[in-house]
Each structure stands twice: as structure tokens, then as C-alpha cells.
């Protein structure tokens, strides 16, 4: 067996299952889950119909490069969404089977596991720099690529921005890949142009690749100010896409997590190697879904309707929870990242007791982060995914308020 498999951590939901194992929720409350960050709005008719109409495509093997119409649709979307002059559909975009597999596969493509170090000297293992808290795939991708993850803790005092200035030079020197998540899971924080300026300067100096996970980019609350993307930042700062790729997905944007459709865009030379890797890995998106995805990327009406539903939920729920927890509307995405310290409970205790007393599931923040530099930056927080219908979210929030008030008595 590959010994690196032993280095993988249990997934947050496995930890949650273990936490809840011996708990029987109090009778009289229907289950409400804010735990899993999985979109639950119905898939829009335009996408469902496109899938049905494309079923004839099942008789053909899909091209790993993706169909020409899909690449054209993605390139056009990227140009429009990020105000870019021209994105080359042939070399600067690549459809993938959801951003998760692409985030993983990218590390296998980019990392030189022989490591860095002066010629002749024993090479040191390469580093993959990850935000903390983070989406666990980054860590697994790093470990299985033979790299060592290094965590940059998010700072609640700076809207959960990661403290890259605290990363030592010798770590940067070994860094081959940096994952960023913007809007972030779980904090919802969006990287600013200044953040990007800093990251590009570091990448220029040390030569690492930046993979920008932007799968929540279309869930935001002000129609007039969509979150800044990595490619957009590069363009606004007068650069090309060297050493930069962004990953996007239809899962959240179009409520099709089951379709497994996303794309990677950016540096053509990285995408060339990535395509080579992928032809062997064999993860081409089904022809049926390629056709339906092209339709989804060309329509914004269903995406605006989707956003409106999230806005309604955040508008109803955030002020309710703000009465009992330290929480506010995030920059974007569909999570509330709530500080529960004022209840006097640890995040795990909070989640366990809320489940026991009110049958409401939230995810302890410490399960989404690692202890690094003497602290677990997820500790004291819970992640509340507002994915269910409005009424269910409001009822869940009402129970959380009641639960917190019961603790104060
Ligand atoms: C931060 C982040 N990135 C990527 C993904 C993967 O999304 P998908 O593979 O559906 O595109 C998720 C899914 O929850 C996520 O939270």
C-alpha cells in the first residue's frame, strides 16, 4: 500500500459522526442540518433540460480537453465575469469533473516531489501552503503528492485574512504551490487587490504556483459588487497569468453538485501539463454534462435567482443569530462562521449540545482547521451552512437562539 495514505486525516464529517455517535437528540424536534456545505436548491430547469437533450452524447467518449463549445462558453464567461480582454479557449481554460478533483489533481501535476534545495545538498520536501481553516482536499492533495502542508492561520481581526507575512523565508523557499480559497470556505472572506499584490510578489520571488479556489464566487449579496477573482486581480495589477490558475464550478452556482462540472483557467503552460496529467488520470467530464455545462455557463438568470434565495436566508438568519453569537454577514459564500465563545462552550461542545437539545447540526470549526503555530484558528467557531430552504433555516436559527439563551440561564 502507498504509505502516504496513512498520513491523510479523517474528514470533518467523520469527526462529526464520532462526536454525535452516542447522542440521541431530544424528542419533538425534526432534524435540521447546517452541517454539510452541499447546495440544496433545486437544479434549474434550463440545466435539467440541457442534460436530457444531450443524452445522445452517451454514445461517445468525452475529450479530456473538453468540447470546443464548452471551452468557448467558459472562456466567454471568464472574460465577462472578470473584465478580461481575451481568454484563449484553446489554451487558457480546461473543463474538469468538479473543482474538487481538479484541486487534488493539480498538486499531483505541479509538485516536484524531489523537493528543493541547493544542487548537491539533500533536497528538502516541497511545501504546499494552505489557508487555515481550509477545505481538506488541499491537505490531502499535498500529502499524496509527496509534499508537506504548511498552514497560514486566518486572523479574525483582519476579516479572516491569512497572515502570510508570518511565513518564514525558508518556508517560502520550499513552497511549490499555494492554495487560496476566495470566497473562503468556511469564513466567506474574499481576497482584496492588496492581498493579491502581496501574493503575486511572493510568487514572483519564490516561483510557486497559486491555485485560487473560487467555487463560491457566484454566491454573494450585492449584485453590484461580485467578489474579485484571481485572474481579474492579475489583470488589474497589469500582469499576465504566469503561475496562476483559478478553479470554478457549477455545483454552487447552478445547483448541480451531482453533475461534477467545473473548470480551471489561467496560465497556459500549467494547463498544458495539467491536460497531459489528466489524459492518464481519466477524469474527462461526460459528453452529456459538457453540453449541459455550456448551457449553464451561458445563462445568468438562474444564477441571479439562486443568489436572491441565499440573500433572503442570510438577511433573515444573520440578525437572529447575532443576538446570541458573534456573527455577521460574510463577504460571500453560503456559510456563517460564528464565534461561539461567549456561550462559554468549546465549539465541539456547542455542536454536541445543540444537536442533543434541539436536533440542529452545525460543524465545529476546529474540525476544519489544524493546530498550527500554537493555535487551532477554527477553535471557538462553528460553521453554519445556510443551504436548506428559508423556513428551515429560520427555524434552525430560532432553535440556536433558544439554545444559547438556555445556556445563559
Ligand atoms: C472550498 C471548496 N472548494 C471546492 C469544493 C468542491 O466543489 P465541486 O467539486 O463540487 O466543484 C468545495 C465543495 O464543497 C469547497 O467547499
From TrEMBL:
Note the InterPro entries from the entry. Answer: Aminotransferase_I/II_large, DapC_beta/gammaproteobac, LL-DAP_aminotransferase, PyrdxlP-dep_Trfase, PyrdxlP-dep_Trfase_major, PyrdxlP-dep_Trfase_small
* Keyword presence, Transferase: yes
* Entry keyword annotation includes Transferase: yes
Cross-referenced SUPFAM superfamilies: PLP-dependent transferases
Lineage, top-rank taxon, reads Bacteria
- List the GO biological process terms: lysine biosynthetic process via diaminopimelate
Q: Which Gene3D superfamilies match?
A: Aspartate Aminotransferase, domain 1, Type I PLP-dependent aspartate aminotransferase-like (Major domain)
The coenzyme or cofactor needed here is: pyridoxal 5'-phosphate
- The protein depicted here goes by the name Succinyldiaminopimelate aminotransferase
MF annotations from Gene Ontology: pyridoxal phosphate binding; succinyldiaminopimelate transaminase activity
Q: What's the source species for this entry?
A: Caballeronia glathei
Coiled-coil ranges from the UniProt annotation? none
Keywords tagged on the record: Aminotransferase, Transferase
Ranges where the Aminotransferase class I/classII large domain occurs: 32-391
